[in-house]
Amino acid sequence: MSDPMSAPILRFDGVSRDFSAQNGFFGRKRTMRAVDGVTLDIPRGKVTGVVGESGCGKSTLARLALHLLKPSIGHVYFEGNDLAGLKPAALRRQRRHMQMVFQDPYSSINPRFSIRDAVMEPFQVHGIRHTPAEGKERAARLLEMAGLDPQLAEHYPHQLSGGQKQRVGIARALALEPNLIVLDEPTASLDVSIQAQIIALLADLKSRLGLTYLFISHDLGLVRYFCDRIVVMYLGAAVEILPSTDAPHRHPYTRTLMESAFLPDPERRRAVTRLTGEIPSAFERPPGCAFATRCSFASGRCYAEKPVLLTTGRHAVACHHPLD
Length: 324
Ligand SMILES: Nc1ncnc2c1ncn2[C@@H]1O[C@H](COP(=O)(O)OP(=O)(O)O)[C@@H](O)[C@H]1O
Ligand code: SF4
Ligand SMILES: [Mg+2]
Prior knowledge:
The chain is 32% helix and 22% strand. It is built from ten helices and twelve strands. The strands form three sheets. Strands 6-7-8-3-9-10 form a six-stranded mixed β-sheet, with helices on both faces. A four-stranded antiparallel β-sheet has the order 2-1-4-5. A hairpin with a 6-residue loop joins β1 (10-22) and β2. Magnesium ion (MG) binds next to α1.
């Protein structure tokens, strides 16, 4: 029998998610595909990064991971269970083990709640009761784990700095002892020095608690520093999965994206890496490769036939002419 610990904690199997939008008040309803056929394993105990430009579907993927959104097509398996197939009670039980930290901690903390109430809310949601003394103790321990002074429990969100609020968000996420935490741009709204402290905290918690992270960011430097493997998204699709941060970039989009961030010489950076051409609309997807209009390697086949994510050689890439 295979070792259950070696099985991925989370698996996306052909997952797409559509959204409908009305064109004006009386306009026709149009459907766009925000996530497009993602098949992806999230291995246990690792940090999997998801990168891509704004609007490429990262947050939608995050919400699909936790079943906060249902797939339009495909399945999401957490610990081997298809989340869409679970009864509400079973889904609630699974949810304890998967948590999310958002970019804007304001969005997850009720401004009228004391910090203690905010940290204890996950227990309430799951019907886990504490005596007042137990609750105090629990909240204090959670705040400490997130590197906060337990005395802050009596304070209110507006009395905290951005970094402290994000630590409260992390304390909440830890409350139910999850295995998987989805971090959706957790440091994007923080100053660089605070950002580094939060990343150090996340790294420490991961090694102490054996957590798995799905780390979403448009900050390539941060992803390269913090993640074990990197999923590159373009217009809703996973176009390349880098098995390590030093793996070669085989998809033309990955190469452009990474070079624009990391070439040391700014002159060369500008010259080599400008992304030109239109991004196709997610409402009217072209039949072939979504990157073809911006790709200097595009052939006739690229405009006609959609490339699928295939593992050739060392890792998975969705391109008809992958780079060496
Ligand atoms: N609830 C929603 N209703 C309609 N469109 C949405 C909704 N959520 C996301 N979208 C659209 O889906 C696309 C992907 O969005 P998102 O996942 O937030 O991207 P990212 O996090 O990479 O910036 C965008 O075009 C966005 O406008
Ligand atoms: S499939 Fe063709 S157009 Fe798309 S990235 Fe590869 S080479 Fe470029
Ligand atoms: Mg987002």
